[in-house]
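User: Hey, quick favor. My workstation is busy. Could you predict this chain's structure for me?
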Amino acid sequence: MLRRYFGDKAFYKRLLVLAIPIMLQNGITNFVNMLDNVMVGRIGTLEMTGVAVTNQLIFVFNLCIFGAISGAGIFGAQFFGKGDTKGVRYTFRFKILFCSALCLLGILIFLFGGNLLISLYLKGEGTAADIEASLGFAREYMLIMLIGLLPYTIAQCFSSTLRETGKAVPPMTAGIIAVFINLVLNYLLIFGKLGFPKLGVAGAAIATVISRFAELAMVVLWTIINRRKNEFIVGAFKSIYIPIRLIKDITVRGLPLMLNETLWAAGMAMLSQCYSLRGLSVVAANNICQTFFNVFSVSFLSVGVAIGIILGQMLGSGELLEAKKTAVRAIAFSVLLGFFIAAVYVVAAEFIPLIYNTNDEVRLLATRLMQVSALAMPIEAFANASYFTLRSGGKTAVTFIFDSGFTWLVAVPTAFVLSRFTSVGIIVLFAICHAVNIIKDIIGYYFVKKGIWIENLTV
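Assistant: No problem, here it is.
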């Protein structure tokens, strides 16, 4: 019985060889983002609130790009498993063209609708002066961050294709170097050290933008210099040709995935907006909570990404039965990892808020929100692993229902009703919104067990 849920040494080696580089890159990225957040938090609560709101909106954009890349990436992983270099090249080309257009659209939306979007998060309790100040900091930060959206997008297109072809270390290395560039520049530009100007939130944005360009340069140069290892890049930019049938297949299977990621991220933004109605203190506390949740959860979230790639390669090579066994064992590993990380996070939550330059109310609130989210980590781990399992076989319509469909039909309405039509406190509201994800796990368990995701898309 236990052998069904636990693999052998070779299984864990294959999973971790792919997951650890992703984990390290994402972990260091989130760790430096956390330090960025802490540095801004050392300036003051209003600055931290403004930056948090903008980052919530950019998070929606990032997930939209991730969804578009992932839609094509399903085919990229399976083409690589099949040994079809042309197929990998076409999916890479699709990513570059489609995501660049998507990025330009996002920039236009932020330019002309940014103030309106930011204002949605500043309607809770707080003085008019505080709200106006937070809006100003958010807008200042956003206008600079827009410069870095295109290099971020192109870098993700390269990095995702490298991972799909089994080369997770180079994008990891580029990402790590980029975040340390970001960290050093944050220190210099936010606080005005070593003769640099003291720019506050603008300095944080400038540092991030520079690091985006640095990451892009590194990942592109490595791919081109090592083009013998990366055959997909040879001739990738000589034309914009992509077989019509492949465009159709990626669109049919990938569009639901892109919409899913965008709607899921928008749903998370909507949940934060519902929480924000309880006051500016909640906005600040939730920002601290989400920042450190991203740091602590990176382990099981990265395992989910690795699960999707491994299963995609197995399906592409025709190992259908083995893929089903691997999925069960990988999901079990992800959940156990979630329990371990949750235990660490519960204890750390007592001390983390002390490093912020804010009041005792925000610190205590942040601790309780973090502990609630820690208890939900195993639930999140199961849902995340199930999501990537379903996605590996191209069942994007199913993942749409499972992920963003659940978010907008269950989680968001729950938060909307409780935040606007009841006086329930933020801790209880936060806990209920996390607890409903148990329903999502039940749905995920049903879909994974049924095996509807097991399909070779390259045949």
